[in-house]
């Protein structure tokens, strides 16, 4: 139970604090003995209240003794703490905003101290639990390279959406266009090349694997989100065919058994505005709880369209509009130790602004930010997506370290793809239903998972387009059905206190059924000029092994080495240029990864690193046959390619209230064998890097919070030079310049409110994400200009 010192016992408290400070410098072996107990997962349900009462409740729930001078807590209140977490994580939340710090002097003994700043910052890093590998473990025990953005960082750095989170990560960035993916270790999550690929890295939202359109424009807002994980490198053993480049997981916050709420309002330049709210609480005490969260945002894209004024869908192209509504129900009929049922559903709408601009050939500069001088409105689409996610997760403890989990998911996306003048109309409808059964086993010698995965998906597309110089209207439609089945397992076998053997295997099978119809209809008579259809069935399977070893140097350092195979199935598609169906081959890769994890300076310094080599065979690359015409895209297989590099990440808490991070990454990509025919000409890209793949990236940031409530922070992201995707479109090789983005924030936090003044791209850096720079035709996609604003957050 918490034990406050009476104000008069200053001498006794001073002696005790001095003793606990000495104990804090005990040998690392002592820390090892208590680490397991400190990381024990417990259930907390402590409402916001006076700090003394909250500490008493914490003592009961955690079994810990909290020692402090009563004067420290006078007049202070706590935040609510709810959910399953370890003792340190719970105390972090409870003390947030109080200006107090603490030190664990034993597994269940804590001393509070008068220190400013984010909770726990003066002591050591809170353990970060990673769930993306399906064996929940501390970040420091993983061999995968995982970049994590926590709820605290999301709030502190004013991170609004998934691409925003990438600014804190090395070897991760957004792609060069609204209709493309994300770049992980130099690899586009939709495949290298044009924007018509299939996932190489899957985005999961509360366990629901997003469709390709949903990953571009889906439930990607980070309001009321607990954690974002980006797993860099292949995750094929536990995630399957769409994980060759990695995986991205967004986990929202769960319902609580106490009442809590929050609201946010944002306003800024470029007509930036946003609103958000959340409420959570019990429906049946300790048995049934709910959580509702909603957010909406709007901003001007900053691009002018002087020739498209008044066109019916111009607003959808030039403005950035987003909203999401999410609900969760948590049911534990037998209490916290029994079955756990979590139902979640979200509905979101995303219509991102496009950042394409004309260049000098259009009579303007790239950073005049104008579009339409050289482009017909017919080819200027304004896509938007309505996304539905549903997940039902049932977790049943079986005793003896065994847990059975059933995860049932459904995702549906409806993407509208008209041009601004409605000369082009069309939809892309995607639906996937998946079922995963997973058995986890965790004891002192083994951490293991075995599972069965079934997925059934369909995609239906149609597109009508009237080109002014053609006497007919183009009408194309296609459908694709994919069934995927897999058995998988992975085990960490702790051979000794120092050595752990890692082994995994997945058998993955998929069946595809593809059909397309292409029609040409006479504009004047409506008669059918051409009607052709085609299709085909294909199936693919693969064995995906994983083998590795981890060595514990000491309780706070370990190294590991893992080898695993990755895969993406082949497929069937239509070559619309000649209106024929064709097949392309599956691709395979072997990844070799060396990891290092460490904590230093009593846990106040975290240094992690990964070194990797990916050897890729039959890589699928999207290439337009006619430069600039993406309807002519086909998938070709590059013979050989590779990616080599590393990530080094540093977290530092040098003093009370100050949190610093830094990361640097290298991803050197190369086509070893890759030649194809485009527009009648043979192109050979052997020896060239992948497009959109910067070799070097780096991130640096710091946040400081004073005990008075005032705070200040900033972060910057460096992106090295890249090769423009235009090289695959018949243009000469074009290396895009490096750029560095700086973001700053400051403000004041009260007990239940917070005001933040912020500026993104403070220096108004002008940078290019894509460029087609050929004589007579120049255009680009540019980065966002400086935006400044303010945000008010309220907790209740």
Walkthrough of the structure:
It is a single chain. Helix content is 9%, strand content 56%. It is mainly β and 796 residues long. It folds into 3 domains: 3-114, Phage tail protein beta-alpha-beta fold (3-Layer(bab) Sandwich), CATH 3.55.50.30; 129-249, TonB-dependent receptor, plug domain (Ferric Hydroxamate Uptake Protein, Chain A, domain 1), CATH 2.170.130; 401-795, Maltoporin, Chain A (Beta Barrel). The strands form 10 sheets. It has a 22-stranded antiparallel barrel. A hairpin with a 6-residue loop joins β27 (446-465) and β28 (472-494).
Uncertain stretches = 1-36, 116-123
From the spread of the alpha carbons, the general shape counts as globular
Secondary-structure content class: mainly beta
Provide the β-strand percentage band.
over 45%
Give a nutshell description of this structure.
9% of the residues lie in helices and 56% in strands.
List the helices and strands and how they pair.
Elements (H helix, E strand, L loop, with lengths): L2 E3 L4 H14 L4 H11 L3 E5 L4 H12 L2 E5 H4 L7 E5 L1 H9 L4 E7 L2 E6 L14 E2 L6 E2 L6 E6 H6 L5 H4 L6 E3 L7 E3 L2 E2 L3 E2 L7 E5 L2 E2 L2 H5 L8 E8 L3 H4 L6 E7 L7 E9 L3 E13 L3 E13 L13 H5 E13 L8 E12 L4 E3 L25 E16 L2 E15 L7 E19 L3 E20 L6 E23 L4 E24 L5 E27 L2 E12 L2 E5 L4 E5 L2 E14 L4 E20 L8 E20 L5 E16 L1 E4 L2 E4 L11 E10 L4 E10 L2 E2 L11 E2 L2 E11 L3 E8 L7 E7 L2 E6 L4 E9 L1
Parallel strand pairs: 1-3, 3-6, 13-35, 14-17
Antiparallel strand pairs: 2-4, 5-6, 7-8, 9-16, 10-11, 11-12, 14-15, 16-17, 18-19, 18-48, 19-20, 20-21, 21-22, 22-24, 23-47, 24-25, 25-26, 26-27, 27-28, 28-29, 29-30, 30-31, 31-34, 32-33, 34-35, 35-36, 36-37, 37-40, 38-39, 40-41, 41-44, 42-43, 44-45, 45-48, 46-47
